[in-house]
Design brief:
By secondary structure, the chain is of the alpha/beta class. It has 12 helices and 10 strands.
Length: 309
């Protein structure tokens, strides 16, 4: 690679007027030994998101391109459209309600240049609520290099808006499965090309618990896609034990969600499905999931989440 590497940040947004300016400006303010351009896919928002982006484009005409979609494409097609247009040597993926902290991009590019076998690198994230208050860290105690088997075994612990990947692997995003390109599936697909990198520094801010959050709006859709990812044949080569472990974590999370929502139908529906689709392996997932459920519930309890600012 001659000269400075170029990074294209792809930002998807819909009805995020309260957050999109902070997101875009935090990316444009990254400094270091690289070139940077930002592509934003504005997905026909009904609030002031479009007007805010138009103003930002006038302020940063050479570095910011806003794609004003003519119809609501949805997050996945919006992302694919931006990734196809990306011209950088590296591609960063960002949700419009998250933002970056200073030094993020320089640290990740230094890691990638020091590890030419690494397909993508992630960072720890500061989890914040809709008002910007700190909630916790996502995630700690993560190794600096992550195999696909390790990731499959522990379900998703990587933060989407922190990723920087090599542009020649964009096909892994473009070839999303028919059930949708959930973050977890993308991370695992990238891990088929080598061990992922991880920087244990809070260089990304991940916003949760507000109206435009997918986890807030469509938790059952997210849960469905996690299960389909764990059982995706593409990842079978990672091994049976990682798949068992990932299924165990999934079952424990289903039980935890059912307990919080007082929804026995949620638990029964998924437990029956795990058994029907995975047979003896599914039975092992269920038994291990019941054993792990009390631990998983404790780790996710509200009093464990909040830390001082």
């Amino acid at each position: 690679m001659q000269g400075q590497p170029k990074v294209t940040a792809c930002v998807v947004t819909y009805n995020q007027a309260s957050y999109i300016e902070q997101c875009v400006v935090s990316i444009l303010q990254q400094v270091g030994d690289f070139e940077l351009d930002v592509l934003v896919g504005e997905d026909c928002s009904t609030d002031d998101t479009r007007a805010i982006l138009a103003t930002l484009h006038m302020q940063y005409p050479d570095r910011l391109t806003v794609c004003f979609n003519e119809w609501n494409m949805g997050a996945e097609k919006n992302t694919l459209s931006l990734v196809r247009k990306a011209s950088g040597d590296y591609i960063a993926l960002v949700d419009g309600d998250d933002y970056w902290l200073p030094g993020k991009l320089q640290a990740q590019l230094a890691f990638m240049q020091d590890h030419p076998d690494c397909p993508a690198v992630y960072t720890a994230a500061k989890v914040i609520d809709g008002d910007g208050n700190r909630v916790r860290t996502f995630s700690r105690a993560v190794p600096g290099r992550i195999s696909g088997a390790y990731l499959l075994a522990r379900c998703n612990f990587l933060q989407y808006s922190s990723v920087v990947l090599r542009a020649d692997l964009r096909s892994e995003i473009q070839q999303v499965p028919s059930y949708g390109g959930l973050d977890y599936n993308i991370h695992l697909r990238l891990a088929t090309h080598g061990r992922l990198g991880y920087l244990d520094r809070e260089l990304t801010a991940y916003r949760v618990g507000h109206a435009s959050s997918m986890m807030q709006m469509l938790p059952d859709v997210v849960r469905e896609r996690i299960w389909l990812t764990i059982t995706d044949p593409r990842f079978a080569h990672f091994g049976i034990l990682p798949k068992l472990s990932g299924g165990t974590v999934f079952v424990a999370d289903v039980l935890s969600a059912a307990w919080r929502r007082k929804d026995s139908g949620l638990a029964k529906g998924y437990l029956g499905r795990v058994w029907r689709e995975q047979h003896l392996l599914g039975l092992a997932m269920i038994l291990c999931g019941f054993a792990y459920f009390p631990v998983r519930g404790l780790l996710r309890s509200p009093w464990r989440r909040r830390r001082p600012s």
